[in-house]
Amino acid sequence: MASTSQTRTERTAHLCAEVALFMRDHVLSRVSHDLRSPLNAIHSWAYVLERKIDTADPAAQRALGGIRTGVEQQVQLLETLVDTTRAETRKLRIERAPFALAALIGETVDEARGALGEARGVSFAVQDTTAAAMLDGDRERIAQALWLMLVFAAETSAQGATVVLAASTTAAAAQLQVKWQATPQALTDDTLAHVLEAFARAQAVEQQEAGRHAWVLALCQRVAEAHGGRFAAPAFVGEGEDVTLALNVPLNGA
């Protein structure tokens, strides 16, 4: 029988793999979206130029043909490489079943504590008012999202810090909020223990565009959307700032 430490290590490895998979999907989605806009513009301007340039000029016509061919090749690459690679996770399928929120919260906090909290000297304080609330959703996916929120908070915390998990419910939804005071340089401090991969941690300290958040949190966003809920995170985690990640999920699926 596997030891507790082996089981914990395997579980952490599985959760990290899921985080990496959805971050990859998110990055590919950004690449596909952000490249298509300028490619479409280039293609349109090529047709504008075609009407302005002398059709008897073979060099100009070859140049225009080269532009159109190049755009078409790039679009085909996006469709055959980027979009095909994303097919596995483009639409997150969930398996719904009723489960007790309180039990999931306790288990997930223990997993986050074992994965990184103990090694970093970061403690988790739980404020749970969900009582006997039941949620009709994908228990494993919601656990993955909550685990990532807790681990990201630990990754972005100083030694000895406390991360607060506030769990509550209304008549319609469950809300899980992870709150802490940020020390973002901890993300890239190689002297500290880490769970999330280096690329993800480095990107997380960069300023994001309005309405966007760190790529590593993509799994949380996808899980929320698949359940008809929402996920909120700041566009930037500043030094010493009070940070909140919030996952809101309807108690009963549509």
From TrEMBL:
Q: Kindly state which reaction or reactions the protein catalyses.
A: ATP + protein L-histidine = ADP + protein N-phospho-L-histidine
**Residue span, Histidine kinase domain:** 30-251
Taken from the record, one Pfam family name reads HisKA
What SMART domains does UniProt report for this protein, alphabetically?
HisKA (SM00388)
Annotated EC: 2.7.13.3
- UniProt KW Transferase keyword: yes
**EC main group:** transferase
User: What PANTHER family does the entry give?
Assistant: HYBRID SIGNAL TRANSDUCTION HISTIDINE KINASE C, TWO-COMPONENT HISTIDINE KINASE
Q: What is this protein called?
A: histidine kinase
Highest lineage ranks of the organism?
Answer: Bacteria, Pseudomonadati, Pseudomonadota, Betaproteobacteria, Burkholderiales
